[in-house]
Amino acid sequence: MRSYDEYCAAARALDVVGDRWTLLIVRELALQGPCRYTDLRNGLPGIATNLLAQRLRELERAGVVAREEAPPPIATTLFRLTARGEELRPVLAELVRWGMPLMTEPRPADAVRSRWLAWALEFMLTDRDPARPPTVIELRTGDEQIAVEAGGGAVHVRLARAEHPDVTLSGPPMPIMGVVLGLLDVAAAGSHGVTIDGDPRALARVGGPGAPAAPADVI
Amino acid sequence: MRSYDEYCAAARALDVVGDRWTLLIVRELALQGPCRYTDLRNGLPGIATNLLAQRLRELERAGVVAREEAPPPIATTLFRLTARGEELRPVLAELVRWGMPLMTEPRPADAVRSRWLAWALEFMLTDRDPARPPTVIELRTGDEQIAVEAGGGAVHVRLARAEHPDVTLSGPPMPIMGVVLGLLDVAAAGSHGVTIDGDPRALARVGGPGAPAAPADVI
DNA sequence: CAGCATCCGCTTTGATACTG
DNA sequence: CAGTATCAAAGCGGATGCTG
After folding, report:
1. Chain D: nucleotides under 7 Å from a protein CB?
2. Which residue range(s) make up the domain with A40?
3. CB-strand contact B24/D, under 7 Å
4. What is the pLDDT of residues B84-130, one digit of tens each?
5. Which residue is nearest to nucleotide D15 (CA to C1')?
């Protein structure tokens, strides 16, 4: 990218990470940890391969990304964030917080990766009833299962099958996110293609910032 | 900007503010408050005028910027951030924090605006001796004077002449930022073109995160 | 003068094909 | 797997001109 030529911290940051695709490459490395070129491409649907190669070179030069030749039996190049690159996490976090309201607008052509959804939920969800015993919610949308575990005031979101979920949601990403965040009524979720297995009251355990007081109690 | 077509909060945020110049336009509106097209251009040296007009239209459509026709005697169009636009402040703040280390690399061709420097200092400076009576530092670099006021554990940075500064720094932006943040030794500042008027010990009152324990005490 | 729109040359990006 | 090569399309930068 051409420099903005400004003696300003924000402008200098954008000189490094302001290019198209650049922050999304950092996102993938932040979410996946050290990974191969192919893994990055899979997490960045639509990127031109020459562009990915070019961006990785630039990020390496800027000290944000490091490449290492993994020894056998892996025997491949791994890309990972440097310490300086890890420091971009707060930037990504604020971007996610700001972008969450935009997730409610439907756009069927969008690519979906469960790790993006899990990542966003990690920032947004809170335990709304810390005194009660732990609750586990499983989400089946996107390319992998998501386990939402609430207990003791904390919520953890992992990319994995839940062992014994109290409730399982299956269906399209948008209404599922709506239900988990407490923005879409559980009763109305069915008409949006969401299937609910287990105890729907477990969904009231977690919620996002904009959710009403006790959405699932409406049932 | 062409959409990334991803159902991801970060990608959707970048669909709105990821274009070249866009976040810097938001920066100017965040720093200046409601202002005219001309004021924006002055704060964005190098932007093509058609691009500024196009970005403002896009930001208006996205609900980030609003335009209002100011009544006489102003009689001009004012651009301002909407509530949604204000919510981008944390994103800019994290970007500034990440970009600060890049400010130490000299690039003489860079444009300088005192409000950019003041803004960055606001995020980085802390009062290192809250018990002592208030200290005022005046910076003369860039296009306006900057008043740094430390007292009671807080540091405020304003674009204004200080009334009775304990110390005044004049000179090029980079070494002045270095001295105030505690990264450049006061004794060495002179050789970088910095003139110090008043009591240099007042500079030890404030410092940035990376500063040694008591930089000015070396004198 | 403030607030744009138009035109044109250059750079960046996107899509696809190809390679060690 | 991890890229490079090629080329068309879109975006950007700079200059200029228009309008209230």
Report:
1. 1-6, 10-17
2. 9-87
3. no
4. 999 999 999 999 999 999 999 889 999 999 999 999 999 999 999 99
5. B48
